[in-house]
Amino acid sequence: MVIHSAANKRKSSAPDKRDRILKAAVKVFAKNGFYATRVSEIAKAAGVADGTIYLYFKNKDDVLISIFEDGIQRLLTILRKVAASDDRVEHRITRIIELQLGLLEDQRDLAEVITVNLRQSSRLLKQYAAPLFMEYIEVLAGVVDEGQKQGTFRGDLNSRVVARALFGALDGILLTWALGDADPQALRKAASHCANLFLEGLKER
Amino acid sequence: MVIHSAANKRKSSAPDKRDRILKAAVKVFAKNGFYATRVSEIAKAAGVADGTIYLYFKNKDDVLISIFEDGIQRLLTILRKVAASDDRVEHRITRIIELQLGLLEDQRDLAEVITVNLRQSSRLLKQYAAPLFMEYIEVLAGVVDEGQKQGTFRGDLNSRVVARALFGALDGILLTWALGDADPQALRKAASHCANLFLEGLKER
DNA sequence: GGCGGCTGAATGAATCACCATTCAGTTTTC
DNA sequence: GAAAACTGAATGGTGATTCATTCAGCCGCC
Question: Domains, chain A, ranges and CATH?
Fold first, then answer.
């Protein structure tokens, strides 16, 4: 009966559980950091047994990597779309800034895991984060480049340096926000100030 | 003969040893990260016995904290001096940027420990780094504020947001530099581009 | 001046708490 | 009732920290 019933239980209970584990891990990592977090804490927070974690992830590292990849890949996908749009370049930059800060504003824990915990393991950082990070920089630098070529942005700044600076600036703002008050209003305002600052600095005169 | 010989052995070997341990720790932390580093590795790199570390430091955390405090305190001291000078504010900003990037350019390992390892433990980060970080931001924001009051900088940007963005930008540049090629020339050029970008963005028109 | 004894820095092997991972057994699903 | 999913106690490896021991340098006594 019920060929596959209410939606699904099998096919969905698995992904569902994987998701619950990831969400729980984000929460616990954000609070205690990666290394100080026991696998059993993640399990407890997710409401599963310790061993269950290992049905969905190779090991503890894999949990962190998965959080990171899910989060960044999602961000990168949207970023690429915005970068490739045919908006004016200034507007694209603004949208990227709002995107990066906005995407995380209602996900404070994720923001903290990405900005802080990501750097916890040099190995993870170098192996997983660095390439994605560079990709992010490339996309951003591409937009700046385009602006320079079409004469909208001044041409005397290295586009990659600008991209790194912009990324760092957003990361810094996000970091203080995650560690501090975390008022969403403040973040939105910071985004607009930041965009304004960079665009004025980039403008060809 | 030789009343007390080549300088001294007792009184000087102690501070000297503490220093050797710190220097060794910076090197090993930079290569492997804080958590992946064994105390015995630090000991070996410093040429002392494992136990000796505990004569100079309370525990492994204390080694990291000491590295951090030494490094940042030195930076903060100079920063405050520059910030309080009576140079034109634009020039002060430029000097601060060059200072932060320049201070570390010949200390790549320290740069990596401070930008990467520092974030390894949420506890350490929140307890030790956050306050110093905020102090750094305050000093920076103070200069921006001053520039705004005297009409050199535009007044419509929140000075703390600008400070955070600037700090983040420098951190981001330093991070890619520490993880990547680490060409000192590149860092110096990045510093000047970054200064230029921010100053143009800040200028009152 | 040289000798016996004292001090405390330094050592590194042994301890032991900790925790990721496993897997034998149980429950759920179909 | 078989297979899949799940459980959580037991295991084993690891590595920070300890501490009994060593020994270099120093003192004061003869």
Answer: 10-57 (1.10.10.60), 61-202 (1.10.357.10)
